Amino acid sequence: MSRTRLARKLEMYINISGVKRITPHGFRHSHASFLIMNGIDDSLIAERLGHTVAELRKTYAHVYKSMRQNMKSILDKKCSF
After folding, report:
1. Residue-level pLDDT at 69
2. Which of 19, 51, 56, 57 is the most exposed place for a label (fewest CB within 10 A)?
3. pLDDT digit string (tens) for 69-79?
4. How do residues 13-34 score in pLDDT, each as one tens digit?
5. Helix, strand or coil for residue 42?
6. Rounded to the nearest 5 degrees, what angle is found at the Cα of 38, between the Cα atoms of 54 and 62?
7. Positive or negative, the Cα torsion across 60, 66, 68, 74?
8. Where are the alpha helices (DSSP H) in the chain?
């Protein structure tokens, strides 16, 4: 399926469903964020997206930052005496 046809189909289904518009590239970012947040190995995600691990970490730094904050919060709760 061509990019143009995919974009048209996506636009059609967005209009039918009434959900917020998202581009195919937006789906790519959502997919990557989902994989990162669910603990999939960075090298596997980078390979899937055609990135290096360094590019992946730079592009999705905000996701990693959020995960670090979440980890700190969990550890603070678990380690408070």
Report:
1. 87
2. 19
3. 888 888 888 77
4. 999 999 998 888 888 999 999 9
5. helix
6. 45
7. negative
8. 3-17, 24-37, 42-49, 53-59, 61-78
| Whether the predicted pLDDT of 67 surpasses 90 | no
Contact 51, 59 (CB under 8 A): yes
- CA-nearest of 31, 22, 73, 63 to 50 is 31
Residue holding tokens 């636009």? 11
DSSP state of 19: P
The answer to whether the predicted template modeling score (pTM) of the entire model surpasses 0.85 is no
Give the whole-angstrom CA distance, residue 28 versus residue 80: 39
